[in-house]
Amino acid sequence: MRTRWAAGLLVAALGVQGAAGAPAVPAKPVETATPAQPVAGEAPGHIWDLPPEATQVLDLSGLQLRVLGQVFHQYVYETPVAKADATLGVTVGPTVPGGLYRMGAGGDLPPRLAVTVRSTGSPSAIGLRYVAQDFYGRKVASGTLPPVYPDPSGRAVADLVLKELSAFGYYHVLVTAARQGRSVTGSCGVAVVEPLPEGLDLKSPFGMAAPPGKMPDDVPAICRRLGVRHLAFDWTGDEEAIDAVSEAGLVPTAVVPFDIPQNVPEPEDLFAMAGDLVARRAETVPDWQFGRRPVFGPDDVAESVASYRQVISGLTETVRRRETPGRLWVAATPGALAGVLTEGPVLAGADGVSLYVDAAGGEATLRSGAYRRSLDFGVQVARRLGVERAIVGGTGDDPSAASPQQQAWKLVTRHAVSLAAGAERVYVSWGRGLPTPVSSAAAYAWMTHLLDGAAYEGAAWDGVPLIEAHLFSGPGRRVAVVWSWVGADPERPDRGLLVFDDGLGLEAVDVAGQPTGIWKGRRFIVPFGEAPVYLVSGELDVNRMRERLRKVKILGVLPATARFESIIRGRIPGKVDVTLWLQSHRPYKQEAVAGLLLPEGWRARQGKHKFPLEPGQTREVTFECDVPQEAGRGPYTIEAVVSLGEQYVRCKQNVWPAQVVRRTIEVGHGFADWEGIDPVVVEDAGGDVWAEVRTAWDKAFFYFAAAVRRKRGTFIASTHAYQGDAIQLAWGLSRRADDDFGHKTAGLSLPAGAFRDTDHLMALTFGRDGAGVVRLRSPRVVLRTHWPGNQDAWYGPVEGAVADIARDQAIGYTLYEAAIPLKELAPLKGEAGRIFRFGFRIGNGRGRPLEWSHEAGVPDYLANPCSFLPTSMADGLPCQTWWGMVGERPGGPPHE
Question: How far is residue 379's CA from residue 401's CA, in Å, rounded to a whole number?
């Protein structure tokens, strides 16, 4: 294997294309690299923010850093748009399906492109010049074409043959036409890919979901060039569509488009038609999928849900009665499984579920764990319903990606995460990263080339948040896909290094097929960050690969995340407890030493805390502090410094005292009863919404008040807890967060598994009957969407709760008050010293709500609601900061 791959590192480092074939992986150190072009918005010459200590330890040269930093480079290609009234225009396009040129015998190299020029006015010679860039924006080819002359219609054509494009990868081609001092540029993307090996592979994890409706003619050919083995397409009886897929050497998955039956025959006739359809082609179509993602109309949700249940159960029963050999997949979102299909054995007879999981654009869905948690949740619910198998029926790139490179990275990582969650196959949606942009398609084609015929062997760093290493084993080679999402800024994760003290037997390559890594003797140094890197070995087995990864040193990536959870006043005046939260981002044990920098006049009774930090472990460390009597009401600026070996983690936050004061409150009496209780303050970045929140307790009730000021002068009422200006309240009373199926988790913040951290979820709303407190969830309740007409016993008004919402037009405040019986929050009791998790979300009409978790400094991958609830419950609320019940405060003694 090393012999086959050893020819191209120098070629790649110099930015020059070599001979046809897959690019090489380094066997020796290389000291040469082409300077990377700056990312849009970055300073020119910016390559890599690698911490100095990592550079010093490894003694790397600037050129070596450029080789390693190449995998992180982002470049936005020039894509000119032709003007409608232009007198001169040029277009350039590929001559093969999808712009995917195959390598090898019988392939399409050298790439040939079609150039078309259109001009108006007097005919004259038109000059053509071209330039080609690679995946990272480096120029790899340039030149001119012979002048062309337009015909009487003003059209001229030319062929562009790019002999330089002979190695695997993506290329962006620009062609400029010039005439009489005027010029215009056109562009297109092409990729050079490996051909798909002959022969069907039913176990391949790679699939494409064709667009709804009639399948375009070129889809099978594009799938072949991408290395896709399975093709899913809508089929309503068109025999030619199945034949076209089979003739292309692909495994067809027929999608019967019966999402929500509307204007269809009687159900029995519908089921019989589907049964005949499956039975007729079951020998040639091994997979049948009923529907795509279900969509329920807002007018009569209960009726459409019932119809969906009837269709799914009727279809599976009818098909199974005929004893056909085909596999039956039921398409659903995790939310549909939980909220629609949980009543009765709806999936009886099906082989598995086809999950459709895509969170909204703009969310940090991969880094936050939302995507993985939703898949985990769907798989677990499917097992609860009696089916063990799952595929991902539709996914794609991330719409929030900032560059073509990041788009390709996220496509690869989403696929790896899907397989890690237990999916047998992943069908990439047509138009969601494939076949365009071609840069994503090239990265996908390299992934299929490396992992074709490979089985998923699990994660090497399972249980360690934000760093990923997924192992695959195939004929002749083992592959690990590694990347990191660690970093304080979710938009710009840290860029670091993996250092293998013994790297013999390992090779590294990036998502575009370019080799990477630096050798220093036996030591192998590989870039490590948001850009996935493949570690490949033809010598090491899976266990030895896993062992190497668990022993690897990680440099330049934050070793742990630190934050302050809370300041809780002690029972004795002048004493507070400051809780520091720390979570490891290393697959090996670390020794930690933590200390505090406190406000003036404060004193910590313990100078330092020393403790071990196991792989992925979460630790909470409490410092007892003496504070002056007049410390103010907060927030207080506190800084932590944590030493982890030779690296340091710093955390500086404005921390609020998160305390529930002992006081009996008369709800509806306004601000008077809350005087003397220090609030916590939340506000949005634009200053449009601002709120003071206070809490209290006595032996019978938990009290909540929020004085909210909005720029708008109206209050938006809504009975629905997730709309309008309603407020959600969440309590977490368990130290350990379990999911709803009894699966234990390794830590509160582990971004895997569909567990919840919220034991009680309620809302303070204003509806037809005035203000009230509504229960949304309670302990030991299956996570499910609440549909109208599907009334669960736990959903509804909280018995014994008192609420009041009053608008004071004069001062512009809306005051929310609630008294919630503690018996409805079991096992919470009215007792001083009790510590529990608490969170709230203040609605803001259609705008972004105010969330305490963000104000409290919770990391984004914890504060994001999808981190702890599946996307079907994306409106839910996680509570991740500790609050404490303390004694009385000035302003009036408690009266019970």
Answer: 27
pLDDT tens profile 531-576? 999 999 999 999 999 999 999 999 989 999 898 888 887 656 678 8
Check if the beta carbon of residue 728 is closer than 8 Å to that of residue 762. Answer: yes
Give CA–CA dist 875/368, Å, rounded: 15
Could you list the beta-strand ranges (E) of 609-722. 609-613, 618-626, 636-644, 647-655, 659-662, 680-683, 689-697, 701-710
- Residues 199, 221: Cα–Cα separation, whole Å: 15
Cβ proximity of 867 and 370 under 8 Å:
yes
Q: Which H helix or E strand runs over 604?
A: strand 603-604
Under the banding of pLDDT at 50, 70 and 90, the label for residue 62 is confident
Mean pLDDT value across residues 735-763 = 51
Q: How far apart are CA 754 and CA 382, in angstroms?
A: 13
Report how far residue 25's alpha carbon sits from residue 506's, in angstroms, rounded to the nearest whole number: 9
Burial label, 120 (beta-carbon count in 10 A; 0-12, 13-18, 19+):
exposed
> Mean pLDDT of all residues in the chain?
80
Q: What is the DSSP letter of 312?
A: H
Question: Which tokens hold the place of 205?
Answer: 């994890």
**d(C-alpha 295, C-alpha 313), whole Å:** 17
pLDDT reading at 24 higher than 70: no
C-beta neighbour count of 81 within 10 angstroms: 7
Q: What is the pLDDT of residues 308-323, one digit of tens each?
A: 777 777 778 777 777 7
Choose the weakest-confidence range: 27-41, 163-177, 719-733: 27-41
Query: Which of 836, 834, 824 lies closest to 734, judged by CA?
Result: 836
Q: Which residues, in sequence order, are CB contacts of 632 under 8 Å at separation 6+?
A: none
Peptide linkage before 435 cis (omega within 30 of 0): yes
Strands 182-193 and 100-102: parallel
Structure tokens at 150: 């337009």
Query: Do residues 473 and 457 make contact, with C-beta atoms less than 8 angstroms apart?
Result: yes
Q: Contact at 8 Å (CB) between 329 and 427?
A: no
